[in-house]
Amino acid sequence: MSDVLFIVLAALAGLGGGAALAGFFIKNKHAQQEEETKERIKSMLREAEITAETIKKDRILEAKEKYLKMKAEFDEEMNNKKNIIITNENKVKQLQSQVSKDQEALKRKEAELDSKKENLQAQLHSVQVKKEELDRVTNQRIADLEKIAGLTREEAREQLISMLTEEAQSKASSQIKDILDEAKLTATKQAKKIVLDTIQRTATEHAVENCVSVFNIESDDIKGKIIGREGRNIRALEAATGVEIVVDDTPEAIIISGFDPVRREIARLSLHRLVQDGRIHPARIEEVVAKTEKNIEEEIVEIGERTCIDLGIHGLHPELIKMVGRMRFRSSYGQNLLQHSREVAKLAATMAAEMGLNAKLAKRAGLLHDIGKVWPEEQELPHAILGMELAKRYKEHPEICNAIGAHHDEIEMTSMISPIVQASDAISGSRPGARREIMDSYVKRLKELEELALNFDGVNKCFAMQAGRELRILVDADNVDDQKAGKLSFDISQKIEKEMQYPGQIKVTVIREMRAVNYAR
Length: 521
Known about the structure:
By secondary structure, this protein is mainly alpha-helical.
């Protein structure tokens, strides 16, 4: 409003002094407004500084809080990582210890290889020297023949070739004989070394198979249901499964007897389902047995596939995979056939690797070497020949087929894998604990062990423990002192070593008990 007033006064004053006066007022007004603006700006700046300082303090507090929180989280994380690092360091130490052992073994093998390499280099140098000598003689002969009159160049060449051929054949025969003689001397030693290394690197189990299975029941009342009226249920079950069901006075147990583990397993699973369902009659028994047989077939395929995956064997025909699964339910002299075949596969692969051969082919042949034992159809062929025919039918490698057929010497061996599989089969089958001993011989061995110890003076009682792996001897404390007890333990162990045959080792423990007895009257 004041601006408008100044403009009006300027207009009324005219163009002269009034205009100058109006300009003065306007200029003064602008200066005043500028001062006011500066003041407002200063005030705003002060407020902004105060606000900024407040925000700064808030941000600093927030930053400190966040820092403390992050520091706590970091400390916790570092403690966790520290614990992990300590754990990993312990593992690394263990691995370093194992690696150092492996490195020592590797160094020994490298030393052996270096020695062999030096021998080969020496032989190669000898051959090269002989070759140079032969070349020199050849050149000299050629020069002499060219000087001989009456011989054409072709005739001289033919004579020279004949002489060189005879000389080379003579030297080759001599070298071959030397190599064969050296191989005969070292072959047995190298074979024993490879077999021992392979056995030491293979972990195996003891035989636990038998011809009976036990089906546990909650109460003896169920036995009556399983037998049925006049025994019709048990007869139907035996007819459907092909096993013998023994229901006797054994509490809360039914015995399933049969030589075929597959049949026993089908009978056991069928009984389990029938008891759970509660409906036990001939029609239901046949239905459950049929379903169980189908489930067992599926389980057999699954076992075969899992075995091939575990051993790293690929591309096996589905029928061969099924036969591998059937091995799980077969045994040979108490040794599970699948476990035996897995052992043979691992042993054969280890031997083949040590000898620089194809370890995968050897492992495959080892797994399949006994498939002839699980072929469901009756055949008059030996199981090795039958297994070879099956392998040929399903397009297995010729070396694998030969190894299967030759592992019991029914056919001639044509590859290096065949004797490896044969040796692996012998190792797996003959090692202590692989196959059960006959009960009579087992009991007789334990009795002989006890009688041997009882023949020593001062021995009161003797007990063979731990399946014959430990002999505990009780002595008379009055006749045997501590020093004599130690000597007695040593003497008995020495006599056992000299006079008895046994697998593994036998621990001889002499127990001397001092008893003081008095009577109060």
